[in-house]
């Protein structure tokens, strides 16, 4: 018969490394490791949950990076968890539109590059609603 159950838990190194938040029954711990002791009575069942936390940073440096992020399924999950809000998503869409407009304007400024396809203008905004997002 076991009187004490020892659980050694090592935090995940993914996403820059997780920290173990659970302190209950912890007898030895640092940021990445905790040893827990669970006192048990004969034939007793128990559940023990360990909570970890990580801070993840993603750098979006190009128009393509931002567009890919906006199309990713990750957006809806981050919105649902209140990690980001719709204001940030709208701001990112606006950044993409401004970059597209700058490319068109650059072509208009240079006489050599003035030949551009009509789609260059229509691709600046996918819908009128997208344009409204960028107007303060």
Key features?
5 strands, two-stranded antiparallel sheet, 2 domains, 136 residues, alpha+beta
Structural class: alpha+beta
pLDDT averaged over residues: 81
What is the subunit arrangement here? single chain
Shape: rod-shaped
Low-confidence region ranges: none
Radius of gyration: 26 Å
**Termini, distance in Å?**
69 Å
Sequence of secondary-structure elements: EEEEEHHHHH
**Order of the strands making up the biggest sheet:** 1-4-3
Count of discrete structural domains: 2
Characterise the protein shown here.
This protein has five helices and five strands, in the order βββββααααα. A hairpin with a 3-residue loop joins strand 3 and strand 4. The chain starts with a strand and ends with a helix. The model has no long low-confidence stretch (mean pLDDT 81).
Short description:
With 136 residues, the chain is an alpha+beta fold.
């Amino acid at each position: 018969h076991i009187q004490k159950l020892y659980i050694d838990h090592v935090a995940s190194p993914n996403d820059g490394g997780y920290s173990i938040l659970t302190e209950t029954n912890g007898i030895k711990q640092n940021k990445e490791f905790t040893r827990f002791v669970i006192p048990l009575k004969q034939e007793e069942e128990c559940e023990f949950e360990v909570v970890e936390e990580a801070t993840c940073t993603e750098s979006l440096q190009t128009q393509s990076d931002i567009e890919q992020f906006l199309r990713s399924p990750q957006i809806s999950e981050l919105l649902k968890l209140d990690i980001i809000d719709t204001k940030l998503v709208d701001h990112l869409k606006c950044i993409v539109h401004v970059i597209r407009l700058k490319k068109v304007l650059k072509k208009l400024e240079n006489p050599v590059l003035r030949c551009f396809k009509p789609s260059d203008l229509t691709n600046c905004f996918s819908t009128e609603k997208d344009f409204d997002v960028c107007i303060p």
